[in-house]
Amino acid sequence: MVGMTNTTIEAMAQSFADATDQHPVRRVDGALQLSQYVLKVDAIALTILPASDGRPHLVSNIGYEPGVVGVYEKEWFGATRRRISRHVSDPSGIYPWERSEFIDTEYVNETLKPAGYRNGITRPLTAKNGSIFGFIHTNIAKPSFDSRTQEMFRETVDRLAHTAWAVHVRMTSGLTEREREILALIRDGLSNPEIAERLYISRRTVATHVDHLMRKTGTRSRAHTAAWAVRYGF
Question: Which residue intervals define the domain HTH luxR-type in the entry (predicted)?
Fold first, then answer.
């Protein structure tokens, strides 16, 4: 890890990007693999907090055992309003679970420690409006989380945040199944008449769906809508 330059990280990140397609979850998986390699950690995972229920949903996991995955989904940082409030007050903070109230829960003694996980760190992901939309969780296979590791962790999390945001948008877009279907066809370059013929619906119905799509996605033109669909993996 020592001597790993930003140029090297960029090259590695590009190689992962080239090996994955535009689907945000697969891109996150690639970024997690990169982070695991750079940080020399045992495991790393991404949790998203959908606005619909405000509870963590594990969307990508590299290296953790199934029982530990269950811990993330039930009781990790962000699972309570009090913890979320703490993260909002310090969105760039890094939280070691061995020094938090999480260490006192049954999940640590019954699941994490028996599985060999002794030290864990969590970093919130913050949107431009200041709201927290997700968390990166990492198991560190070393007795201390030194300053160099912290620096590398922040760098790789910042890179992960872009693809994590795509997953968040995809999960919270509020699009109906039909709207998603039409969005994919717009992405593929079909016109309204072609979409109507493909889906056996009227052109007026297609136009209505397109209007709804543009309003929900905040796009200003058909080309903008198509680009939005590609960016967020629809």
Answer: 168-233
Per-residue pLDDT at 135 exceeds 80: yes
User: For the domain 6-172, what is the CATH superfamily, name and number?
Assistant: GAF domain (3.30.450.40)
pLDDT of residue 201: 95
Strand order in the sheet with 120-126: 57-62, 43-48, 132-139, 120-126, 95-96
Q: What are the domain boundaries of the chain?
A: 6-172, 177-231
**Cα 40 from Cα 44, distance rounded (Å):** 10
Contact by Cβ (8 Å): 102, 75 = yes
pLDDT tens-digit series, residues 207-233: 999 999 999 999 999 999 999 988 888
Calpha distance 141→20 (Å, rounded): 28
The Cα–Cα gap between 167 and 161 comes to 10
CA separation for the pair 218, 195 (Å, rounded): 21
- Give CA–CA dist 44/9, Å, rounded: 17
**In the CATH hierarchy, which fold is given to the domain comprising 177-231?**
Arc Repressor Mutant, subunit A (1.10.10)
Q: What is the pLDDT of residue 183?
A: 95
Given this model, what pLDDT does residue 195 score?
Answer: 95
**Rounded to an integer, what distance in angstroms lies between the CA atom of residue 216 and that of residue 212?**
6
Q: Which two tokens stand for residue 119?
A: 């030290």
